[in-house]
Design a protein that fits this description.
Blueprint: H1 2-5, E1 16-20, E2 26-32, H2 37-50, E3 54-57, H3 71-79, H4 83-93, H5 95-115, H6 121-132, E4 137-140, H7 145-155, H8 158-169, H9 177-182, H10 186-199, H11 201-222, E5 226-227, E6 239-240, E7 243-249, H12 253-259, H13 277-311, H14 313-325
Parallel strand pairs: 2-7, 3-4, 3-7
Antiparallel strand pairs: 1-2, 5-6
Helix pairs in contact: 2-6, 4-5, 5-7, 7-11, 10-11, 11-12
InterPro entries: TraB/PrgY/GumN_fam, TraB_PrgY-like
Protein name: TraB domain-containing protein
Organism: Marmota monax
Length: 329
C-alpha cells in the first residue's frame, strides 16, 4: 500500500536535501528553522510526498517530552526559566554544564518571547505525520544533551566560559519572524556560523560539528534495506531500499552532506573528557565565589533585618520598658 502511494518524482520543498545510501535507500533531509511556520509546512509536505519508512528528528530522549505537549504549555515552559529548572539542570549535567544549559534556555526563552512561538514545532508535526504513514517508524537522532553540554564545557577555557556566559546573559536584541525565516537561506546561515566559529571554534565543534556526525550516523542507521512481507515460507526473501525523512536544523545540513560518505567514529564523540587542572581550579573558584556571595548576602540581609526591627517604634518601646523594669543596684 505504501509503495503504491509513493511518487516517482515527489514535489519537495527547496529546503530538502536528497542523499542516497550504498544500498540504494533514499534519505530526504528537511533543513528547518526551529521557530518557523514554513518549516512545519515543509516537514508535512515532505512526509506526505515520500511516504517514508522511518522519520528521524533532531531530538534526544531528554527532549522527547516536547513531542506530546501542546503549544500553549510549551510556550509557557519555554518562557519560564525558574530556580527549579536550574536545580534540575545542575543535578542532571553538573554545575557548569547545568548553568550553561540554563543560559541557552534563556536564549530560547528570549526568542520565544520575541516571536510568541514555542520551539520545535517542526518535530511535533513530523511526529504527527509519521503516525499517519502505515508502518512508519519514528527515531530520535540527536546525541544526548548531557553529553553535548559536558563536552562543550570541557572544550572551553575558563575565560571563554565567562565570555560566553556574559554574552548570553545580556542577550536582548529584538528578533522578527523575517529574521528566523532568513535562517533557512544557506548563505546567511553560513555567515552566522562563520562568525561563531571565529569566536568559539571549540564550541562550534562540540555543539554543531560533532552532532553533525551523530545525526549522520542516525540517518545512515535508519536507511537500511527492508524485507518485504512474504505470503509463505517457501517464497524467497525480497528486500527493497528504504525511504527516510530526516528533520534537522538547517545548520546541520551541510555537515550531514559532508559526512554522508565518510567513516564515522561515534564512540569518540560520546566520551566525556576528564576535567583539566585549570578546569578543576576554575570550578572550585566558581563554587567558592558562589557560596561566598551567598553567605555575604545572608549576612547582609540578616544585618539589615536586625537593624530594621530595632528601629521600629514598637521595638524601641519594648526595649525602653525592659530597661526601666531592670532592678537598680
Amino acid at each position: 500500500m505504501k509503495l503504491k502511494r509513493r511518487r516517482e518524482q515527489p514535489n519537495l520543498p527547496r529546503t530538502v536535501t536528497q542523499l542516497v545510501a550504498e544500498d540504494g535507500s533514499r534519505v530526504y533531509v528537511v533543513g528547518t528553522a526551529h521557530f518557523s511556520d514554513d518549516s512545519k509546512r515543509d516537514v508535512v509536505k515532505t512526509i506526505r510526498e515520500v511516504q517514508p519508512d522511518v522519520v528521524v528528528v533532531e531530538l534526544c530522549q531528554y527532549r522527547v517530552s516536547m513531542l506530546k505537549m501542546d503549544e500553549r504549555t510549551l510556550l509557557r515552559e519555554a518562557r519560564e526559566v525558574s530556580l527549579e529548572k536550574l536545580q534540575q539542570a545542575v543535578r542532571q549535567n553538573g554545575l557548569m554544564s547545568g548553568l550553561m544549559q540554563m543560559l541557552l534556555l534563556k536564549v530560547s526563552a528570549h526568542i520565544t518571547e520575541q516571536l510568541g512561538m514555542a520551539p520545535g514545532g517542526e518535530f511535533r508535526e513530523a511526529f504527527k505525520e509519521a503516525s499517519k504513514v502505515p508502518f512508519c517508524k519514528f527515531h530520535l537522532g540527536d546525541r544526548p544533551i548531557p553529553v553535548t553540554f559536558k563536552r562543550a564545557i570541557a572544550a572551553l577555557s575558563f575565560w571563554q566560559k565567562v565570555k560566553l556566559a556574559w554574552g548570553l546573559c545580556f542577550l536582548s536584541d529584538p528578533i522578527s519572524k523575517d529574521d528566523v525565516e532568513r535562517c533557512k537561506q544557506k548563505d546567511l546561515l553560513e555567515q552566522m556560523m562563520a562568525e561563531m566559529i571565529g569566536e568559539f571554534p571549540d564550541l562550534h565543534r562540540t555543539i554543531v560539528a560533532e552532532r553533525d556526525v551523530y545525526l549522520t550516523h542516525a540517518l545512515r542507521q535508519a536507511a537500511r534495506r527492508l524485507e518485504l512481507p512474504r505470503a509463505s515460507e517457501a517464497e524467497p526473501r525480497k528486500c527493497v531500499p528504504s525511504v527516510v525523512v530526516g528533520v534537522v536544523g538547517m545548520g546541520h545540513v551541510p555537515g550531514i552532506e559532508k559526512n554522508w560518505s565518510t567513516d564515522l567514529n561515534i564512540q569518540e564523540i560520546m566520551t566525556i573528557p576528564p576535567p583539566s587542572i585549570s578546569g578543576r581550579v576554575s570550578r572550585l573558584a566558581l563554587k567558592a565565589a558562589f557560596f561566598g556571595l551567598l553567605g555575604y548576602g545572608l549576612y547582609w540581609m540578616g544585618r539589615r533585618t536586625v537593624s530594621l526591627v530595632l528601629s521600629l517604634p514598637a521595638t524601641q518601646y519594648c526595649l525602653q520598658r525592659a530597661s526601666e523594669a531592670r532592678p537598680r543596684q
